[in-house]
Amino acid sequence: MRAIADPMSDVAGAARADTALLLCAHGTKGVAGAVSTHAEALAARGIFHSVQGGALYGTPKIDCVLCGLDAPRAVLVPFMMAAGYTLETLRTRLAAHPWGERVHLADPVGVRAEIPEMVAEMGEAAAAGRGWAPGEVALLVVGHGTRKHSASGATARASAAEIADSGRFAEVGTAFLDEPPEIGEAVAAFRAPACVAVGFFTDAGNHGREDVPELLAETGVPHVYAGPLGPDPRMAELILKQGLAAA
């Protein structure tokens, strides 16, 4: 699996002074969360003309962020874990926006090759915190998924398969909140005595912060939840790489 490189190793001389970098998350009823934190971290590096975060739902809305741009061009990185239904919604929103033709849309951050390694490391750290050896417990990658788009759960499944091939955990599986298998079903299929779960979410919203722990608790199996992937500070580096690749 691919590790995340030194943050300064492959962006030297990569300044895009004429290009704004935009991050777009799904969002919630409140303000955009992790996407704002990552945008601030990337803005401080001074590589792009400006860096701003927005959301399809919640605030600030990506439509409003686009209207306020003052750079000649922009690159938009979907802060999403899959190229599924939400990405299609973003494409539709961009196509209808006056700024749409000047925005280069990058691939979602969740398709980066470094993601499986991040998931595995989060799982290993959570297991260590409970005194468990990773090779003796199961790893459950929990995504949102949706029946509206077949690709929505594909990235989580691909990451789980790559981690399984590495042999670092006794077993590796996936579960989803809005498509099968659900958490209870997936955990019941494990033979390992305990389970470590990682949330394949970009933010610590209701799904990543509340729903997953509650559903894990209902299984009655010894477990630990590592939390959602998105707030990890290393995500900023992956966002940057996606932005530079599309600029």
UniProtKB/TrEMBL annotation:
Alphabetized UniProt keyword annotations: Lyase, Metal-binding
Cited SUPFAM superfamilies: Chelatase
GO MF annotation, one: lyase activity
InterPro entries xrefs: CbiX-like (IPR002762), Sirohydro_Cobaltochel/CbiX (IPR050963)
Superkingdom of this protein's organism: Bacteria
Full protein name: Sirohydrochlorin ferrochelatase
Provenance organism: Limimonas halophila
Upper lineage: Bacteria, Pseudomonadati, Pseudomonadota, Alphaproteobacteria, Rhodospirillales
